Amino acid sequence: MALRWTSVLLLIQLSGYFRSGTCGKVLVWPTDYSHWMNMKIILDELVQRGHEVTVLASSASVLIDPSKTSAIKFEVFPTSLSKDDFDDFAMKLLHRVIYDLPKDTFWSPVSQIEEIMWGFSEVMIKVCKDAVLNKKLMTKLQESKFDVLLADGVGPCADLLAEILKTPLVYSLRCSGGYTIEKHSGGLLFPPSYVPVVTSEFSDKMTFMERVKNMIYVLYYDFWFQAYDMKKWDQFYLEVLGRPTTFYETMKKADMWLIRTYWDFDFPRPLLPNFDFIGGHHCKPSKPLPEDMEDFVQSSGENGVVVFSLGSLISNMTEERANVIASALAVLYCAFLILFLKLLMNNFAEIYSNLGHPKTKAFITHGGINGIYEAIYHGVPMVGIPLFWDQPDNIVHMKAKGAAVRLDFNTMSSTDLLNALKTVINDPLYKENAMKLSRIQHDQPTKPLDRAVFWIEYVMRHKGAKHLRVAAHDLTWFQYHSLDVIGFLLACVATAIFIITKCCLFFCRMFTSAEKKKKRE
Amino acid sequence: MALRWTSVLLLIQLSGYFRSGTCGKVLVWPTDYSHWMNMKIILDELVQRGHEVTVLASSASVLIDPSKTSAIKFEVFPTSLSKDDFDDFAMKLLHRVIYDLPKDTFWSPVSQIEEIMWGFSEVMIKVCKDAVLNKKLMTKLQESKFDVLLADGVGPCADLLAEILKTPLVYSLRCSGGYTIEKHSGGLLFPPSYVPVVTSEFSDKMTFMERVKNMIYVLYYDFWFQAYDMKKWDQFYLEVLGRPTTFYETMKKADMWLIRTYWDFDFPRPLLPNFDFIGGHHCKPSKPLPEDMEDFVQSSGENGVVVFSLGSLISNMTEERANVIASALAVLYCAFLILFLKLLMNNFAEIYSNLGHPKTKAFITHGGINGIYEAIYHGVPMVGIPLFWDQPDNIVHMKAKGAAVRLDFNTMSSTDLLNALKTVINDPLYKENAMKLSRIQHDQPTKPLDRAVFWIEYVMRHKGAKHLRVAAHDLTWFQYHSLDVIGFLLACVATAIFIITKCCLFFCRMFTSAEKKKKRE
């Protein structure tokens, strides 16, 4: 408890320090669904510290709902898509990814990501155009003179906005497909020998064949992977900025990257001074449950409860799969508290509050990073049923750290689910490991949310954070990899060898011809 | 001022948190001279937070003086060297490095470092043997059951002690020769295209030829550089541990690395989760000067004062060089406060207090990291007269950031020194840049000293910090660089090409022979 008190104190101090200067104006370019829920925690904190926060949202936003927040300002711009179009499109795409795309092949994780990204690319470019080409909107934003643009780094457009509005840029990001954005725009290093590429489903301790596969993934992501329909985006960027560029190039502009993981969840890997790892920033100590829920939980007696949630995007589960899960849960000996996140969508902190309840024995999760961090924060072992994107990888991480059992959503039977639950509840090792992760999460010099807000304020105070950016950003790719230097040195060595050989041959010939002459004489 | 108050509050909280558990026992393996002055700041803080700190010092220690500190315990072990032997040896070695070794050639910085390291290696192995082979001492230390071993990472022996005593290990380190220890033991990455190797005297923005030179340095440090007389050390390690190892290998054991720089001084470069950058942790707000000194400073009127110090090792300056400096200072129009650090050796915080005095206009420094950080902390522009080791590099950093002018100790004239001083005092850009660095230094989520102590306590709490170490430590060098994987993939490609070619040739032959048959028929 001492630690929590600590953090609250620090929070007051930081905001006090900032206020002694001036309060900042923050523009936000969010991403919808769980990304928004996550971002909103940071925005609420910024507002509480006296900053003026304006969210730039399209009229088609699903969860980004101006009516549900009072302190955050919204700038809603019209877009040709309707809310239902957008939600339908997202649900159909995910249904296809979860049920229809091939699984368990070497390329399936990558093709899944490409499928999702290309799908969203279509929608995103439409929304981005509707924002950026809306002259009235842009003029208004320019006149507002924002101190910083905060954006979810999962897609383009924020970089373009920052360029137009000439504001420093801070990204919040879980990860991009194959870490391509972190690598090509952020300058992060991912040595393939011990950093498994996201979606590889390997841990940091890889066998030889896993390292071979990881290398093939890395090569694929580096040379073939196209997150978006690049031609369209390049053309659009050229149109707006009046010069040819790519979004990897414009995203390099970012001053600070707030990565939504930490070393309890992630395997240690190289970072850079302008990257901070704020995983679990959205977690808070549990609030008391509503009375009826508390009664239900208490009635479970010594057996305790299990929290179940498959995330914000699984509303259209097939009946067959739902039955498998329901029949497993029905036969279990302990009381259950089954929560579909969809039902309480805008209140996800409240749902996860159950994880902090002393009676909670396990968490059945799809492996979204938000939920996983709640489980880590509260030290609850997990049964992971990953669906798509980074979720299989997330569960692999928790499995490698001994805090989760993994199941396959499409093929698992009721018995599988039952056995997995029994394992994580009855084997004390799972609880121990989950508690160990929890201790790591709680034991940081500063709380993740405080650091997230600190760096956003920092970028405002210093009008960017150029002094934290590596000089690598100013190098071309062949300079960065020292290919010109290596080429030059090899050329020098080759020339030296050539000259020495020539000299040797010349002297040899001199010597032999001299000998011949002698013999003749 | 709000920021300082902040940090003090945090300090109370952390120690409160730790005390709610238990207080720790810290064993310290220090390095002498300025390294000790620096380390002592951390030890004092640890003591203040209730930890039991025991310094393991040889009887030949020069500045590590048990009589001058009360709260820190000392375990002094006898060694065949005397205090005077040690100091004489150090002074002679440095005299040779500063005055006699060739300067300004491509290899001179490297050979300088090798000269120093080999010299100290002789002494260090003697002291190390006298500690480690002292059975009574080792038994006593083993029985004391220390929670952590804190050591200066500049040399070997601490790793051996940690191995024998089975304690977690935390290093404090400015840098090793060519970053070899950070790279080979710590696992840090130093891309040669934008990270100038220490002693290269390049900034992070290198020309093509500078990048070529940097690459040559890197290759030299990677493949030829021998920090110590390795045969002797390897033999000694084998003797003690009973198995062949190297000190790069045993140093890998370190749980946490506290690097004594930060991004105000250093150029941004990749780091790892178990590295923290605590540069300037020894700096404190200035205390009022003693009355006579204050009178002297005030008498300078509007002109202000300049602080002068060439560090703790320059007591044997040649008369000729001393005259050059004195005559320059004599003609200057403003009052001078000339302080030789040697005179007030154990009180270096008091000397540097002058840097925080509002009348201080500039700092003439040899470029030791301690002094540079005091200047950064207080925002004072510098005239750098580097002598050896990392000092030229340190001044290059400050010059690149626009806060210093560099002079050559051996060749500068009085006029050079005078002009340099006039430049940094009269050109407002130098003061501006120094103030900018100062703002960066003061604007961190947690104070460097608090972080240093936090991580030491952290390692005690978690009995190490294995979860922050990259898996790279378990790989061989060819696995680490993926050479086996690349070899395998190339072999696969070669085999595929071979088989395809063979098949093509086979079918070609089939086809042509079939045609010939046809023609014959």
From TrEMBL, chains A, B:
InterPro entries: UDP-glycosyltransferase, UDP_glucos_trans. It comes from the Eukaryota. It is a single-pass membrane protein. One of its GO terms (molecular function) is glucuronosyltransferase activity. Its EC number is 2.4.1.17. Keywords: Endoplasmic reticulum, Glycoprotein, Glycosyltransferase, Membrane, Signal, Transferase, Transmembrane, Transmembrane helix. Its main location: endoplasmic reticulum. Pfam families: UDPGT. It is an enzyme of class 2 (transferase). It is found in: Endoplasmic reticulum membrane. GO terms for cellular component: endoplasmic reticulum membrane. The chain crosses the membrane at residues 324-345, 485-511. Residues 1-24 form the signal peptide. Belongs to the UDP-glycosyltransferase family. This is glucuronosyltransferase. It comes from Propithecus coquereli.
